[in-house]
Amino acid sequence: MCYRSDIEIARNTPMDNIEVVAERAGIAPEYLERYGKYKAKVDLRLLDDPGYAERGRLVLVTAITPTPAGEGKTTTTVGLADGLRGLGKKVMVALREPSLGPVFGVKGGAAGGGYAQVVPMDDINLHFTGDMHAIGAANNLLAAMLDNHIFQGNELGIDPRRVTWRRCVDMNDRQLRSVVDGLGGRTSGVPREDAYDITVASEIMAILCLADGLADIKRRLADIVVGYTFDEGPVTAGQLKAEGAMAALLVDALKPNLVQTLEGTPAFVHGGPFANIAHGCNSVAATKLAMKLGDYVITEAGFGADLGAEKFFDIKCRVSGLTPSAVVIVATVRALKHHGGAGKDDLTREDLTSLDRGLPNLLRHVENITQVYGLPAVVAINRFPDDTDAEVALIGSRCTELGVNVALSDVWAKGGEGGRALAEEVVRLCDEPSDFRLSYADDLSIEAKIEAIATKVYRADGVAIAPEAEKQIKQLQGLGFGGMPVCIAKTQYSFSDDPSLLGAPDGWTLTVRNVKVSAGAGFIVVLTGDIMTMPGLPKSPAAERIDVDEQGVISGLF
What we know:
By secondary structure, this protein is of the alpha/beta class. The protein contains 18 helices and 25 strands. α6 (about 130-150) crosses α7 (about 205-210).
């Protein structure tokens, strides 16, 4: 029988019991905490077990600038892992957890697709093991303690106009972007302007994904800056005595989640910060666990390489000491034609002219990986049936000019077998020498770090910093935060801060409008263009098509 939708394929493919998957990964039973038959958490004590030595080669899967035509990064990640396992390699997958916001918004499910998925896909997309809820609860506990402190006499002298900590909810809800709360009389709090972020943009999500254990997460939580006093001094969660209770809510969420691919390859799915408004990578803990269990670890970073890969290297690798061995850059013919100006209805027709105009987007990402970061790379063409041989050959010839090979990927339809050629190229690349480096040094100023990313990675002519942002940078430098890396929040749809500029735009300036510190996460957040930390639902959200029948069978996830 031929199953058409992702959820039909997932539901009709038998899964192994999670204990079998754990045994396949080499996880001792004492470290496994089962969540039913097909999910489990893994105790972080495994990281300190001398019987597990780090041996895995880390492979990052990233992509071109995303388009409505689609790229298939997670699908490629899963299919590549299954392809490596088909070659007889011991492999682990390390992915992010989906946010409910995109699941019910535009994107739908986010567990891969076709015959290259992590399962159980409906559980992974809906609630999973409760990590998102724990992060939201810890975030909102801090918000409640902050406002209660102000209400109860404000001993710390917090300026209600300078509160920077926001509440969060794991949903695309534009109505909450700007609110006034504390209304209803004296006993209902202190009225003030407020706002909500989506949970995956919470600093606590970033902390969870960068912490290396419970002691580290408590230290990081205590360092969170929640606002400023009337004298403009920072106020932290530690001063509010909130870190202990917050950490208590996160004890289980800190443990990576173990699942499997449709072909039974072990996979960690843990942590889910967005890459356009956060750092876009799964947890350091899950990645390090995977590297102790597999000879090859396949991970991904969100959106295009200018966002997810840049933050993977400049934030995650900087903080954790991880060194990738190779990079896979995912592209589709139709997405490149979109970057070249082809209309939506023309993407399935052979169009070498539009493809040639769109190729600079891919080539710029390739140059960034190989020249800015010094890593070997392969371009994975996620092939569709209407892609012509001439179109694929054009991509191959242009990539060859940069010294990078192209591998066709057919993992959606064929699973691991469809990723065999890509897997063989990844094995070859991992045996090549590399010269991994970051795009800027720790000791640069905040402005210089922003400019380094803007000019080296985005290829902007320069940076324009708004007066308010200049004031914020000066304050943060003065408070001793200048040594932190920067996390630039930027549209995912363009190298620039203007989503309408497709391809590889030149002659533009990055506009910085707001700068704030995420002291617990350990980076400076730089907001550019019109980026928002609370998305909204589209006119026809995916939620309208998701349903469940009387037997509890979910439909509409894709």
